[in-house]
Input
Amino acid sequence: MPDRVAAVRAFSRFYTELIGVLQAGLHETPYSLTECRVIFELGRYGQMEVGEVRRLLDLDAGYLSRILNRLESDGLVRRERSAVDARRQTVVLTDDGRSTCAMLEERADSQVRDLLAGLAEEDQERLVSAMTLIRGLLQKSSKGAAYVLRPPRAGDLGWVVHRHGVLYSREYGWGPGFEAEVARVAAAYLDHDSARKAGWIAEVDGKRVGCVFCVPRDPETAQLRLLLVEPSARGMGIGRRLVEECLRFAADAGYRRIMLWTRDDLVSARRIYKEAGFTLSEQHEGEESGHELTEEIWTRDL
Output
């Protein structure tokens, strides 16, 4: 083991020196590696809650605050109160910030192109394969890939309908009728008062892996709708986090209770609802694409 530890540390020292992260400024800029990572993630995800940035990069709250203060002073980011929760703060790149992000991306790409150019084609493939292997092994042994939650934006509702149709057909045999119902629910989301609704899209490495929506059922009751987590992202706690966000929003928006509709064969989802404090209040026999099942209503006071 000591020899392996020494070998890993030696590689780490070699690679950090090779890509220049020990310099005062990364890619000939006045910004450190961590500051550049913040800029990069904002460029990739768009507007984010400050807490999401902190969790994604595993940064101390005070350290991130100092970084954002500097970037804001330089005109690269803008902070404002969340439209969903006034107690939370969001951060987004300004026009100058997006230009800086594009410049950092191009310089990083150029550095890697120069690195690869010194290798034969076969060696380039070996290098990329080795890097992929290293990343895969270390991700399996760590806490897992980081994820972020963000509000829905253009193209997301179409993805929600598509993935519900694909996954529920594959996993439960539900047909086009179910997909059509999801499409109606997604379209109706747009018609609700913006102060009384909210939605979240979960992403891992910039790819959508989950969703949930909170809409009004009546003036005092919220409804949780369209909870979904991709198979590749299950086990990361994303489903529980999405439900928690729904509950928090519903309480802050002034609802007195929240309800949801589900089916008895959705075992994992029902477990999440139970752990979140929902209780089963109604059951009805139903059918979907020729499959007999039990429709359920779960509720919880806020």
